[in-house]
Design brief:
two-stranded antiparallel ribbon; mainly alpha; 4 strands; elongated; about 700 residues; 32 helices; two-stranded antiparallel sheet; single chain
Length: about 700
């Protein structure tokens, strides 16, 4: 026994083989553990090469401490022994692999190779916690890890992870996905330094078993961005809920959003500065590091790539949300589908047709109502809904719909595809007022028995699956905006590009919130607008009661309205003495034409509801068929820059002169043809006859 221990300590191969017990078929676990602790590479090589017929070294058997040889070698930092283990097959009957480690492409690894990587990465995490503490930022991590690897005692860990990542059959992609969604930034940074080509691959998900049957090209960044869009949309609607009931859900969503944002920023850093960082770490072993400030070199590389350290000061948070990644996979399946085949029926080609329809023209004119001029994008979207619930606007929308339903093809008015295309144009151009008007007019005033918003879907060329709905399209657009926002990491917050991206996100966030409001509360508001209480409030003129009633319905649907959302004291349209001045009437002659002016002069208090409806319909008819040309649509697009708007097709911002002029193929769609103006009187006579027959 003394001879054997001395041979192991001195790594004397001949003495060690001579001291072995010939009756043992396999090498005892205690002896293997002693060989690893003594780093007797010669003795281990002799056992693996079967210099003797007995005392074979089986890598599948656990040591005396309960660990496998490969895991224990990695834990000890004995990378030469680990490399030797990996060069041999697990089963003792397998033949030896040829010499030359670099020539191997499919080297079989231990069945616990993943555990080896985890041990190596956990070692660096423990050191990081001891030196930097629990709460660190992304910039501190990126500066610290290369410096930690440069230590001679820690470089063995680097070699181990690099060895397994590049030569073993372990699924690195599955581990990278797990680290990214759980907020394990240190482990993800390790894999980015070792195998950046696999982590940043555009076909990342194809390598994961649960995604292998998917046809889409989906990278890790696309997957995380889709998840961030889903989380942002959920938190957008949930932040209006009662915090006392959903505080845990809200905090969980906020934490998850922070984790995904940190992982995406780390991927963005390596997308631009990854080759320089990987080269620096790979050459650490060959350099004299006594006088080289590694952290300073990393800082210089980051700043040269456009990442000042202040832009990477986001905190690193970690929390395992799901036990299996398949929960994330199901949430992003639709997003991957939209990313790959989202080919809407040429909306831009038929844009003039959509905006030139009677319904869209009526919506555009309705949004010029003086009441709506009191709302601005800086106000809450709930106030916009309150304005649309005022009796004057409700009456005009009802008359507008009566005219539309008298059309030869009334089904086209409430066609989900047509409405989705109309909403698509309004959302693309940031016209929140028109978007709300469409949902209000169709979803509530038509008194449908089924919710229409989930059915409003786009037509996709060659689509055999269910087409995307308006909400799914908004989610898709939010994903693109968030990806653009991540790509601007390092840019100044005051730059025009960053501000425009924030405005895009505001537009989509408002649209998402509006779809949720109408989806949950449309039936309640529908019932209220046709109730006796609403008629009593209309007769009394106390319009602020409408705000209280609608707010109660919204709160019953799960939305928590703050005092700023329901404060309408500064809005004249909610005052009991609100009236439209003659100046406003002249300025909006398209809405208050001669027929409406004659109707306002009627002093007969015994006028029936039918006559009132006819007069209102005449007014709406005059707004549709008679009047001055439309100079532009709603000026209250959701932008802080009043002279900019989103382009109709490319989504770019173009300057306008105060109003949004829609341009299609060089021709302004707001100009009416002369033929329509010549036929206006005849159309009015036909419409009047139809209404009198009701």
């Amino acid at each position: 026994m003394v001879k054997k221990e001395a041979a192991v300590e001195e790594d004397d191969v001949e003495s060690f083989l001579a001291s072995l017990d010939s009756e043992c078929e396999y090498c005892p676990p205690q002896l293997v553990q002693k060989l690893l602790e003594s780093r007797a590479i010669g003795c281990i090589t002799a056992l693996l090469d079967r210099k003797v017929s007995h005392n074979q070294l089986d890598l599948r058997r656990r040591l005396a401490n309960g660990e496998r040889p490969t895991c224990y070698a990695a834990k000890l930092g004995f990378h030469q022994g680990l490399e030797l283990f990996l060069r041999h097959r697990i089963h003792p009957r397998d033949n030896l692999l040829p010499d030359g480690w670099d020539s191997f492409t499919n080297i079989p690894s231990d069945e616990n190779a993943g555990e080896v990587i985890d041990l190596a990465l956990e070692a660096s995490c423990e050191e990081r916690k001891k030196k930097l503490g629990e709460e660190i930022t992304l910039s501190q991590l990126i500066l610290w890890l290369p410096e930690w690897i440069s230590d001679s005692g820690n470089f063995a860990w680097w070699h181990t992870v690099k060895l397994l990542g590049r030569t073993s059959s372990i699924n690195i992609e599955s581990k990278a996905l797990e680290y990214a969604v759980n907020g394990q930034a240190t482990q993800l940074l390790w894999l980015l330094l070792v195998v950046p080509d696999r982590v940043l691959s555009p076909t990342f998900l194809r390598a994961i078993p649960m995604f292998k049957d998917r046809l889409e090209l989906f990278s890790l960044r696309d997957f995380l961005t889709a998840q961030l869009a889903v989380v942002t949309a959920d938190s957008l609607s949930l932040r209006h809920h009662d915090p006392s009931q959903l505080s845990n859900k809200l905090s969980s969503l906020e934490l998850k959003r922070s984790i995904l944002t940190t992982s995406l920023r780390l991927l963005e850093v390596f997308h631009k500065a990854g080759p320089q960082l990987s080269y620096l770490v790979a050459t650490l072993e060959k350099k004299d590091l006594s006088n080289i400030p590694i952290a300073q070199q990393v800082k210089t590389m980051l700043e040269g790539a456009g990442f000042p350290l202040t832009s990477l000061n986001c905190p690193i948070l970690s929390h395992p949300y799901h036990s299996e990644i398949k929960d994330y996979a199901s949430a992003s399946h639709k997003e991957a589908y939209l990313e790959f085949v989202f080919l809407i029926r040429p909306v831009h080609a038929c844009r003039s047709e959509v905006l030139g329809s009677r319904f869209s023209r009526a919506i555009g004119k309705l949004c010029h109502h003086p009441y709506l001029k009191e709302w601005s994008p800086q106000n809450s979207v709930f106030k916009l809904l309150f304005i649309f619930c005022l009796p004057d606007l409700v009456e005009k929308m009802q008359c507008m719909l009566q005219l539309q339903l008298k059309h030869r093809n009334p089904a086209k008015v409430i066609c989900p595809t047509y409405l989705a295309e109309l909403c698509f144009i309004y959302m693309t151009e940031g016209r929140i007022v028109e978007f709300t008007a469409v949902l209000m007019a169709v979803q509530i005033l038509l008194r449908l028995d089924h919710p229409l918003i989930p059915q409003m879907s786009f037509h996709i060329v060659g689509d055999k699956k269910s087409p995307p709905t308006v909400y799914e399209y908004l989610l898709h657009q939010l994903k693109k905006v968030l990806d653009e926002k991540i790509s601007l990491t390092g840019k100044s917050e005051d730059s025009v590009t960053v501000q425009l991206v924030k405005e895009k996100q505001s537009v989509i966030s408002s649209s998402l919130l509006l779809t949720k409001i109408f989806e949950r509360s449309a039936q309640h508001i529908n019932w209220y607008l046709h109730s006796a209480r609403y008629e009593v409030i209309q007769e009394r003129g106390d319009l602020k009661l409408i705000v209280d009633d609608v707010a109660s319905f919204l709160e019953g649907s799960g939305f928590l309205l703050t005092s700023q959302d329901i404060c309408v004291n500064h809005m004249e349209c909610f005052s009991s003495k609100s009236s439209v001045s003659k100046t406003e009437l002249k300025g909006d002659s398209w809405l208050f034409g001669p027929h409406m002016q004659r109707a306002s002069c009627v002093k007969d208090k015994k006028a029936t509801g039918v006559s009132k409806a006819i007069m209102s319909a005449e007014n709406m008819k005059s707004s549709l068929l008679v009047g001055s040309p439309i100079n532009g649509l709603s000026t209250r697009s959701y932008h802080s820059f009043p002279i900019l708007r989103y382009g109709a097709s490319e989504g770019v911002l173009v300057p306008t002169q105060g109003r949004v002029n829609l341009v299609t193929k060089g021709v302004e769609s707001t100009k009416w043809s002369d033929s329509i103006l010549r036929k206006s009187s005849r159309c009015f006579a036909i419409t009047r006859k139809i209404l009198l027959r009701m």
